[in-house]
Write a structure and sequence with these properties.
Length: about 375
């Protein structure tokens, strides 16, 4: 039996007392993180051996006994340990990426009021519309959906003036043979349309950020007129955050629905392994690419293919899918302004995105055949998940 990990996010029903407690816990976790990061930077500057998690964690009891930081005693000990684990993981990601010559930023100091959060690694229970948080007690939440599986850990975070809990659960799951369709599809991601499928289906790009720009600019202009740090400035900041959250929620909802539909209706899904972080550096297209949510869409496809026992293939990003004719395999230049592919050799006349998706599908099947139906020995940058 397969075990899946699912995250369920709920909004807390809070009052002033609960919110103050959450902010205190988040502040303690932030203090421990920043203090440890300062120590790490100091050791690196003096070319000493970087302190391990155990060395950093062993300093916590002394901090709690100190008169200057005795307020750390009021917080659950594992929350402070998790802050140190987050720092150690961030450092590990940085040094690992540097060895692979990839760009991952060095951990930065956390700021108050920006992504406030803390995490419990265990001991979280849920009953009668309430969560039990150690050292805090029972806190109500908006029960929008049932929780599946066993709760492993929980992260409490502040977003747009509201507090949320994200519980990570392990759910036993066995893919059903009834979900198999025998279909393979190639997907070409774009800006005019979010995705063009090789079977002719077109997923329109809703452009949620573009639609909300007028309202967002109005709220941001109003924010710029307020004195920074004043009560009116804080109130207006919440209004700006509310617009961003609305756009983010609408985009995520749309991408979830589209990715679920695609995964349920196809067994093998082929996409290009695009360098989205590099493409977003283009100043002319950065906003449009971020608004489309390509990276999130692909990440949704990845974990949902695992959930449903399907396969996702990522082919080489340098394959000329838009320039190549899907019929005769000839290659010709295709500027972005040209929206139809008219082959000068065989006369094929087709939408350029549909032509590209057909080429992507063919390349994915070639990779699958070369790998013998598994990821062992896959050539180039091709990657297969779901087997």
């Amino acid at each position: 039996m397969k075990v899946m990990r699912k995250t369920f996010c709920f909004r807390f029903k809070t009052n002033a007392t609960v919110e103050n407690t959450f902010e205190h816990y988040a502040g303690c976790a932030r203090f421990v993180f920043n203090r440890a990061l300062a120590l790490v930077k100091q050791t690196l500057d003096t070319q000493q051996k970087m302190p391990s998690f155990f060395l950093l964690a062993n300093q916590l009891p002394q901090l709690k006994k100190s008169s200057e930081t005795a307020w750390l005693e009021t917080v659950h000990s594992q929350i402070l340990q998790q802050a140190l684990k987050d720092l150690c993981q961030a450092l590990k990601n940085f040094f690992s990426a540097r060895k692979r010559k990839k760009v991952v930023g060095f951990p930065q100091f956390k700021k108050k009021g920006k992504r406030d959060s803390f995490r419990y690694p265990q001991s979280i229970t849920c009953s009668n519309g309430k969560f039990f948080l150690p050292k805090i007690g029972w806190v109500g939440y908006y029960d929008s959906r049932p929780i599946e599986g066993t709760i492993k850990q929980a992260t409490i975070k502040k977003k747009g003036g509201h507090w949320y809990i994200c519980v990570l659960c392990e759910v036993p799951y066995t893919p059903s043979p009834e979900l198999r369709t025998g279909k393979t599809v190639g997907i070409d991601l774009g800006l005019k349309n979010l995705a063009a499928l090789s079977d002719g289906t077109v997923v329109e790009n809703p452009k949620y950020l573009n639609k909300a720009l007028n309202k967002l600019e109005k709220e941001q202009r109003s924010l710029s007129r307020k004195k920074k740090g004043s009560n009116n400035w804080k109130k207006q900041g919440k209004k700006v955050a509310k617009v961003h959250i609305h756009v983010s929620n609408a985009r995520n909802d749309f991408l979830h629905k589209q990715s679920t539909t695609i995964v349920k209706n196809h067994d093998i899904i082929v996409v290009e392994n695009l360098s989205i972080s590099g493409m977003i550096q283009n100043r002319r297209l950065s906003r449009a690419i971020a608004d489309a949510g390509w990276a999130r869409f692909v990440s949704f496809l990845k974990y949902k293919t695992d959930w449903f026992g399907k396969s996702l293939i990522q082919i080489d990003r340098f394959m000329p899918s838009s320039k190549q004719c899907s019929s005769c395999k000839g290659i010709q230049d295709m500027p972005l302004c040209v929206r139809r592919y008219v082959c000068t050799v065989c006369g094929l006349d087709m939408d350029r995105d549909l032509n590209a998706s057909i080429n992507i599908r063919a390349a994915g099947l070639a990779v699958l055949n070369a790998c013998g139906g598994n990821s062992t020995g896959c050539p180039g940058e091709a990657r297969i998940s779901g087997f």
